[in-house]
Write a structure and sequence with these properties.
The complex is a heterodimer of chains A (104) and B (130). Chain A is an alpha+beta fold. Helix content of chain A is 37%, strand content 30%. Chain A has a single domain, classed as Irregular (HU Protein, Chain A), CATH 4.10.520. In chain A, helix 1 packs across helix 2. Chain A is elongated, with a radius of gyration of 19 Å. Chain B is of the alpha+beta class. Chain B folds into 3 domains: 1-39, no CATH class; 45-85, IHF-like DNA-binding proteins (HU Protein, Chain A), CATH 4.10.520; 86-130, no CATH class. Chain B has helices at residues 7-18, 22-41, 87-104, 122-129, and strands at 4-5, 45-48, 52-59, 62-65, 72-75, 78-85. In chain B, helix 1 (7-18) crosses helix 2 (22-41). The termini of chain B are close together. The chains are: A alpha+beta (104), B alpha+beta (130). The interface between A and B is large, with 62 and 64 residues. Strand 1 of chain A pairs parallel with strand 2 (45-48) of chain B.
């Protein structure tokens, strides 16, 4: 059940695991569930909305104003247009769980 | 109009889309998120093609400040999540945002106002309220 590098989990691994945990469901259904979950989140963000998942975190869209950037190779000034970017803020519980081991 | 998607909305959407029982759907939504969290807890990266990448980053200790009092306050080393949306999602979010800007306000496609705290453009709020 390992994909690219043992420190990475990819979608198909989540699906295999969920399928193994739910023997009454077909892998095909689980696949559709997982793509629906992340697809719905994406859709909400595309609409300009927010996704709020207690304990996990919240996704939102942030506007970035236009700015003058530089081509790092040539040092030339280039104007970077305003844009909107997806943003994720981890939830409190996730932050606590990440720092539970050790002294934090 | 509710602009925020929650677990319940996800479970309902999965139920509508896949047709499994509501109970199964709620459980699967929960478990999907859990599996992501568990992997991150182990320090692993989670890659969801088309969606994005969740990564754990170790931050070292530093001196911060209590923003209220201005007093220096040490910040312990900690682990944080960084999420990078996929190129596909970034492009979709940006172009949808720009077309909303163009339809509603101004012709330059620049975000007219700042987004308020929850990331919803204030002008969109007004549009939705009407």
């Amino acid at each position: 059940m390992r994909g690219p590098g043992s420190w990475t989990v990819i979608k198909s691994q989540l699906i295999s695991k969920l399928t193994a945990e739910n023997p009454h469901l077909s892998q095909h259904d689980v696949e559709r569930v997982v793509s629906c979950v992340f697809g719905c989140m994406e859709e909400a963000l595309v609409r300009g909305g927010r996704v709020e998942l207690r304990g996990f975190g919240a996704f939102s869209v942030r506007a970035r104003p236009a700015r003058t950037g530089r081509n790092p190779r040539t040092g030339e000034a280039v104007s970077v247009p305003a844009k909107a970017v997806p943003f994720f803020k981890s939830g409190k519980e996730l932050r606590l769980r990440l720092n539970a081991s050790g002294d934090a | 109009m509710n602009n925020t998607l929650t677990r319940a909305d996800l479970a309902e959407a999965v139920h509508q889309e896949v047709g499994l029982s509501r109970q199964d759907c709620a459980l699967l939504v929960e478990r999907t998120l859990d599996l992501v969290v568990e992997a991150l807890e182990r320090g692993e990266t989670v890659k969801l093609s088309g969606f994005g990448v969740f990564q754990v980053r170790a931050k070292s200790a530093r001196m911060g400040r209590n923003p209220k009092t201005g007093e220096p306050a040490p910040i312990d080393p900690r682990r944080v999540i960084s999420f990078r949306a996929s190129q596909v999602m970034k492009a979709k979010v940006d172009s949808a945002f720009n077309s909303r800007q163009l339809n509603g306000h101004g012709r330059d496609g620049l975000p007219t106002g700042s987004l308020d705290r929850d990331g919803v453009p204030s002008d969109r709020r007004v549009a939705n309220a009407g």
